[in-house]
Predict the structure of Valine--tRNA ligase.
Amino acid sequence: MTATITNLPSLYDPFTTEAKWQKFWEENQIYKADPNKGGEPYCVVIPPPNVTGSLHMGHAFESALIDTLVRYHRMQGRNTLWLPGTDHASIAVHTILEKQLKAEGKTRQELGRDKFLERSWQWKAESGGTIVNQLRRLGVSVDWSRERFTLDEGLSKAVAEAFVSLYDEGLIYRGEYLVNWCPATQSAVSDVEVESKEVEGNLWHFRYPLTDGSGYVEVATTRPETMLGDTAVAVNPNDDRYKHLIGKTLTLPITQREIPIISDELVDPAFGTGCVKVTPAHDPNDFEMGKRHNLPFINILNKDGTLNANGGEFAGQDRFVARKNVVSRLETDGFLVKIEDYKHTVPYSDRGKVPVEPLLSTQWFVKIRPLADKALAFLDEKNSPEFVPQRWTKVYRDWLVNLRDWCISRQLWWGHQIPAWYAVSETDGQITDNTPFVVAKSTDEAWEKAKAQFGDNVQLEQDPDVLDTWFSSGLWPFSTLGWPEQTPDLAKYYPTTTLVTGFDIIFFWVARMTMMAGHFTGQMPFQTVYIHGLVRDENNKKMSKSANNGIDPLLLIDKYGTDALRYTLVREVAGAGQDIRLEYDRKKDESPSVEASRNFANKLWNAARFVMMNLDGLGTGDLGLGTGNSQSLIPNPQSLELSDRWIISRYHQVIKQTTNYIDNYGLGEAAKGIYEFIWGDFCDWYIELVKSRLQKDADPLSRKAAQQTLAYVLEGILKLLHPFMPHITEEIWQTLTQQPKDSPQTLALQGYPQVDADWINPALETQFDLLIGTIRTIRNLRAEAEVKPGARIIANLQTDSESERQILMAGQSYIKDLAKVETLTIAAGQQPSTVTKKKPQRGLKTIGLVIAGLVFLRVALAVADTVDNVPFLGTFFEIVGLGYSAWFVARNLLSTPARQRFLTKFFASPTEKNLSATAPQAPQAAEKSIAGVVGTVQVVIPLAGVVDIETLRAKLERSISKAEAEAQSLKGRLSNPKFVDKAPADVVQAARDALAEAEKQVEILRLRLQTLV
């Protein structure tokens, strides 16, 4: 194939590139799953973001992690499905729409349910897709054809099926129970939707007089207004202070209601006075105590947080206003004893942002214990699901052990309306706590059941409440695949493979899914739960709306590109489940860490441009490398040189390392390893090593081997990096492989590189570490001595290690090329081997020496014939010859090191050994030089004639004096108590930092001065 595009543009434009490939992938349905195809399934369901949401850094982080895993497993040949979707978010949508209505001077009750829902769907159509479109900007490889919404018809059918089934099995019931009530949203909320906050409050002490007039008891409370609903006072049965009062009655202040003194072991004698007021309708512990002692349940609150008629003179007052007024009245009546400052926790509604009220209410509940026990059995008997990191297993287990019945009804309109219909004709047209009902999957089924039970004239009204959002989300892993129908998707992709989610919703969502799945499918919904951490801000603080420290990922995408942000978020993960920190300058809206990833993308782009500029317009196919998944892409391994074998060995080591990391959820470690290989080994070293071989006048075989190796490793790099940075790798791969424009393949569907152990050569890599260290040391010494960049120098290397000398000799050409060395001497103590550039006449000299040797041998044989005829003389020479042969064999052939020296000297490969054939006398040491060490190799660079030694020495001494003076000045300031005590802390710390820097600079400069030996 002839190249149509010989190279990439000079500058990488992430914005054009990313938009192009996102469009291509989606329009060509590259990620559309097919359950009828072969391959081991790999399925992930997206943690559905709220339809009200917009992309935040947590979404970006989670999506980057999931997409990395999904792309990797797709390239591994698995039949992959990443299923996207959103959650209807009942409370969040209600909050938005009710604010809109309030601005219009309306309420949802005035609007009516049908009109409100019509408006809700309209809002969803106009604004609800915001986060989906933003997720597309991240380039996530989801199957958009399978996008789901929790209120879709299919998912609504699954919800009705689950509700009716659980009800028929006795696992869903309707009853009066104490729930967490949010006055702001006027809805029940689950325990996990409650956030406990520590507040500075008060503890009020009141006297409750005994009815017989014999005295009083003192109680303490943090919620004085609830005393209006007290129905008892409780003491511990073992508390000697109050045993004599058990069974007596008290007259409740204000209400004048007579209430009993009861004993209950739940009472803590050490809290307050040891006497506690009991309000069964407004406290969870009191609720249980009330049931145990058959106490009355008196509700004093309306659903909006005001007091009802049971509040007497305080009816209609807001709960916090009533609190003040109740305290004032008790003080006036002489019942207030004291008020203490008291720090305690108050439960707040996560959505309403106000303190919740325990409220007695008739609601729908799931009997949770049977579901939780089944999930526990899977965990304890099969370790299913498996948590990564493993420490989260205990947290998950503790949730399952301690669960109480789950209140699933919400007093809202947007959501899945509870599939229960009340026969209101039986209770005067009203829904009451005692109205009979039927549960059905549809309205038609409800009418059939109701007529059969109550007659043809029955009047039905569906329960106005909706189900808790987490009820439908609990079905997500299998309802999205078609359950309750037995679909091909369900058969192929369920149970799903991996769930990637944050630790903060282990109970909100993870436990709900495992309980529902265990009950309805008999399997856990996923094999592995990968728990990721949080994205923290530049000060290592958790990002939150309340702290106003969030970072808009779209802003960073617009500035640096999607790949740069994705790669940064994944690379920052130091271990599975760990939080990550994102550097950010809020004044400039810049991120140094994301900028570094953009620079990495540019580095890769420029390296790819260099490679393709040196392929003579050929693609990988023209070079004999193919473009597919083959691992035998190098056609002639024998033609490879030392550096080629080294980079290919390193490449296969990185494949092995990367796959091992990803398979074990070490995504951050995998990203960093690929980065180090690309930037360091490939770009900084291998490309530099082969530049001379790519010249037009270079040896053709060497040039072709370099081209093949460059293309082979570059294509492998693109495949390795693709799951992390999909856009730039796709763009480069398309050009490198010269895909046809009309029907291109895509990198996203290529095979991930596989390790070929035959290419891995640890010994060679160790050798190259020494060569690279030597080159780097020479470069550093040049810089320290301020040698002009273009000047070629003399370098002397000394080591007592024979193996190190062999390595240095083998890589002499690399050292000379990359460190700009004219004459390189490699010495063992005082026996150096001087390496100079190979002379073109060397071959002719060798031929001449061979011919001369043959002539000499012929003359010697003739002389030997003559001598052999002389008496005794022939025998003498035979004895001498035999002795010499024995000495030669013992010295050069018996031991392994001796053989290596002998064979290397006479039979070395010019490509891999290139050793000098001579060992001249050690040269005189340079009078003035600069020295360094790498491993056990001493590197000495004579400076005479290269730099002005005295000028350099003087410059270093002046720099030392200046740095010492700066350090002395800073020490003086920091030893002054007035400065340390009175200056701002940041100024003092800045001075300490400057002192440490100055002292370090002095140390470095002195070391440089000492190297001028």
The radius of gyration is 41 Å.
